[in-house]
Design goal:
Order of helices and strands: HHEEEEHH
Number of domains: 1
Largest sheet: 4 strands, antiparallel
Helix content: 25-40%
Number of helices: 4
Shape: globular
Strand order of the largest sheet: 1-2-3-4
Strand content: 35-45%
Distance between the termini: 28 Å
Length: about 80
């Protein structure tokens, strides 16, 4: 079975969650506005999981955007430089 970010993103959210918890490596969690964002490494791609603790709900799962201002929160805690370049 081919592992790709595109195939992962085409899955239903419940299947994405299952795959993240069984196949991905948890990297770090940050707080960003009303979210707790968990960063995972899945088959060579970074994926963010946006959890709204007030609603007790995962609102979205997206590939990491290396150009987003959130990157400074990650870079304070871990080194993603070699992957981002």
């Amino acid at each position: 079975m081919e592992h790709s970010l595109f195939n992962f993103l085409e899955l239903e959210q419940k299947d994405q969650i299952r795959q993240l918890y069984t196949e991905a490596s948890f990297i770090v969690a940050i707080r960003y506005y009303g979210y707790k964002i968990n960063l995972y490494l899945l088959h060579g791609s970074y994926v963010e999981v946006f959890y709204n603790h007030k609603l007790d709900l995962i609102e979205k799962i997206t590939p990491l955007d290396f150009n987003h201002s959130r990157m400074k929160f990650y870079q304070d805690q871990i080194s993603l430089g070699s992957v981002a370049s």
